[in-house]
Amino acid sequence: MGGPHRPFPTTRHSLIVSAASAGTMAREALDDVVAVYWKPAYKHVRIQWRRSNEEAKDLVQGFFTALIEQQILAGFDPSKARFRTYLKGCLDHFVMKQDERANRLKRGGGAIAICDFEAAEREIAGTPSVEDVFLREWQRQMFALALEDLRAYCETIGKTLQYAIFAAYDLAEAERPSYAELAAQHGVPVTNVTNYLAWARRELRRMVLLRLSSVTSGDSECMAEQRVLFGK
Amino acid sequence: MSYLPDRALDHLRDVAEAPDFSATRYRVEEEIGRGGMGTVYRAWDTQLERRVALKVLNAADRVNQEAILLAQLEHPGIAPIYDAGTLPDGRAYCAMRLIQGRRLDEFLRDEPALPARLRLFQKICEAVAFAHNRGVIHCDLKPQNIMVGEFGEVFVVDWGVARTEDSAPALSAGTPPYMAPEQSGAGAQTVDTRADIFALGQILRELMPDPPPRPLAAIARKASAADPRDRFSSAQQLAADVGRFLDGLPVSSYRDTMPERLARFCRQNQVLLLLLGAYLAVKLSLYFLAPALK
Known about the structure:
The structure holds 2 protein chains of 2 kinds.
Chain A: H1 13-22, H2 27-47, H3 53-69, H4 83-97, H5 117-125, H6 133-156, H7 160-170, H8 179-186, H9 190-214, H10 219-230
Chain B: H1 6-17, E1 26-34, E2 38-45, E3 50-57, H2 60-72, E4 81-86, E5 92-97, E6 101-103, H3 104-107, H4 114-133, E7 136-137, E8 146-149, E9 154-156, E10 163-164, H5 194-207, H6 214-223, H7 235-246, H8 258-268, H9 270-293
Antiparallel strand pairs in B: 1-2, 2-3, 3-5, 4-5, 6-8, 7-10, 8-9
Helix pairs in contact in B: 4-5, 4-7, 5-6, 6-7
């Protein structure tokens, strides 16, 4: 139970730092950034900038394309701002500079293809008006991606039962089942249910931190962002 | 990827953050503080049947360092450490004495009298001086990191960014405005115990009434001078100067004006001056009354 001891996720801060110093992003770093930030960016443009869904799509795709093609990240200084703050500032600047007749920017690259704008649009319909959509969506996206990672990890190492119990309890949309109900449903002792939950939550935290490390510039920023991600 | 509703997101944020102490002797009761380096919980030690403060940090090496440093600092003004370990998810924790009291900034809201405040300040200086004598610099002294117990006892807490004089400096450790100028940027290389003296000077400012007595203001000014060479060289010296002010004596940081010296002389020699006055009054009375009596 518990699996191998993994105190901390392997850091991937270097990807962001090297991207900043080079001005352009490595493909690996870009994939991580787009995966985490496309939805917060899209909802931010839709709600804060009050752009239509089509305009927001173009702007967000244009923004991430510019990240690849232009030297946007050259100005990122980890000692002055968090990567999330910097990226949001860049996005705002990018949107400000675009007028409604802006040319549709060239779409391309596998990274952009992962953006499911229609799904994001459906989510906006149910989103209450919040002050900082970008921050909330960033939190949501980090956890959503970590959940995907956790599910894939559980399948890989043969712990689908652990994930099923975790999903049934921690992702319950209505009332949470009791431990006894889950134990009876899956034919395991109640103590196993609590152990499986504890294990899955630890792994989820690890997955979140792994994702976080790929979009932060170093330990200091990562710790500061942890407080935002987990803090109340 | 399915949409994560707000309720599920908030729950996941909670459970991913909650430390798993199930394999330890501690049972977490509630979160009592959250700071830059980690989270503090009130917990029950099932083995020794007492309440403790459990500090969970995100950086494993830092909490181990804090635990090791704290273990060297046995002083009535420093909360003792009981235990340290690592959680299954890799986060490090340490169990410390649970201080029953209030933070200094909360305590000051009751506006205790200046002498009481200054005596409290002296106790803070004593705890800091003890740490300095053992080569430990706190690096983040501020009212929020000082607890005042039910009986006026003082505890300097949160040694999370503390370091020894010979260890590598942590860049930008500290909290403005208590952070000495040399603690930020390239100057961090030169940080020594005088960085804590700067913070003590800033804390002293918050203890003073408005307007402050001049000698006391001078002490605070000297303690938190921009150039470390202009500050008190030790926390004991700072405490001693505050003590001299409390006793009505001249302080090293301030040169009295002539009227102030005269006023101090009068305060310190009240009895002598009264006796002298009485003697002179009798003498004068006799001088004027003597011819009439003849």
